[in-house]
Amino acid sequence: MSLRIYNTLSREKEVFTPLEPGKVKMYVCGPTVYDYIHIGNARPAIFFDVVRRYLEYIGYEVTYVVNFTDVDDKLIRKAEQLGTTVPEVAERFIAAFKENIEGLRINKASLNPRVTDHIEEIIAFIAELVDRGHAYESGGDVYYRTSTFADYGKLSHQNLEELQLGIRIGVDERKESGQDFVLWKAAKPGEIKWDSPWGAGRPGWHIECSAMARKYLGDTLDIHGGGHDLQFPHHECEIAQSEAVTGKPLANYWMHNGFININNEKMSKSLSNGITVQEILTRIKPAVIRYFMLSAHYRSPLNFSDETIAQAENSVERIVNSVANLKHRMSVAVSEPDESVPALEARIGDIKAQFNAKMDDDFNTPDAITAMFDLVSEANLYLQRPVASQAALNLLLEAFEGFNRVLGLLETEEELLDADIDALIVQRTEARKNKDWKRADEIRDQLSALGIVLEDTPQGIRWRRK
């Protein structure tokens, strides 16, 4: 089965064919770095991380670009509130973003271009639009003339007449039309600014992505992604800007994830129900957050609540325990393959095929997770055998590792600590043999404080993380 992606532009699933065989150019709109990212920002960050992981899993070389909007009205207001500068605000929250991304086990993007590093390219892009008659200067601002782009509205499936009806009374008189949008903003006194052919100012929001995507990925992208709320106006405006200049599609596949609700209510500032990633990482494990985000199809809404997080915690624990049991049995496994290995290998092959088929169907992560639980069931069934072979255990562990490369649900970075934990357990065992109960209890307490649970099994003491 070939990979099929639901294209927002066509409203259909389409077979994925990259522009260049074996390579994928992917651009996802990143944060405006004026504050800590919230759980709504985490959904596209995690989902598109999985998209990128799966593309690499099936053999593609992916160039993955996520931009930083580091100059904007919101940053200017934040700098005023904090009594600092826009660059200092940007540095602070870019650092926080990177820390949060690492905390969520999101692989680093190939590039994180910043707006302020690309003012020259942005000005050149705007100048090209002006020269072609798609943009005009008015009072130091520059606006995009939407009437010159016949396809304006094709992504969000709106037309100019409908958009005109939605324009409120009191349109800015500097605009020729209510639907026109700003490309360059004239600087107000005291604001951060750059020189341009139209006077000192700074870029509008939409133009930055057109300029940076073109610089790093060319005229046409394979995949352009972001949250559902970016379809209009942001991505619609990107299309108008880029395609008016290049005459080519900005992206062949447009992908948008659904919203997150908090306790069945829309997340909004007016309800004060936003939750930052900074905050949830203090009380919820990264694997649980990732599981929660992937437990519903990416285009569907998702509800964050104590109940849904508890369900995710239980599910992750099942996977983690199964893998821990496999690793524990490896220490006493026999080197000779047993008679069950060929049949086990065939069953694992079927599960892998199921996993791939679900991911090939528009990145259906809920059903891919179901395949991972089929692997859990297979592992638990095999572990009931009194004697396990290394060959069988390796087959199961390798399958888990493959799925984890895509979903990122197992805490692989903590495996570096396994040797230290094993060493403490050996020390505790020796202390018990020597009837040094005080030392044995101290080690157990130390492990407990680290979140390590000791369990007696027929094969000896094993441990797992809480």
Task: Describe this structure as you would to a colleague.
With 466 residues, the chain is α/β, with parallel strands linked by helices. It folds into 3 domains: 4-257, HUPs (Rossmann fold), CATH 3.40.50; 317-409, Four Helix Bundle (Hemerythrin (Met), subunit A) (Up-down Bundle), CATH 1.20.120; 417-465, no CATH class. It is 47% helix and 15% strand. The chain contains 15 helices and 15 strands. A 4-stranded parallel sheet has the order 4-3-9-10, sandwiched between helices. Strands 5-6-7-8 form a 4-stranded antiparallel sheet. The protein has a 3-stranded mixed sheet with strand order 12-11-13. Strand 1 and strand 2 (12-15) form a beta hairpin. Helix 1 packs across helix 13, helix 4 crosses helix 6 (205-217) and helix 9 (286-294) crosses helix 10 (306-330). The protein is elongated, with a radius of gyration of 26 Å. Residues 165-169 have low confidence and may be disordered. A motif ('HIGH' region) lies at residues 31-41. Zn(2+) binds at residues 29, 209, 234, 238.
Which labels suit this protein?
Four Helix Bundle (Hemerythrin (Met), subunit A), EC 6.1.1.16, CysS_C, Cysteine--tRNA ligase, 466 residues, 15 helices, four-stranded antiparallel β-sheet, Rossmann fold, elongated
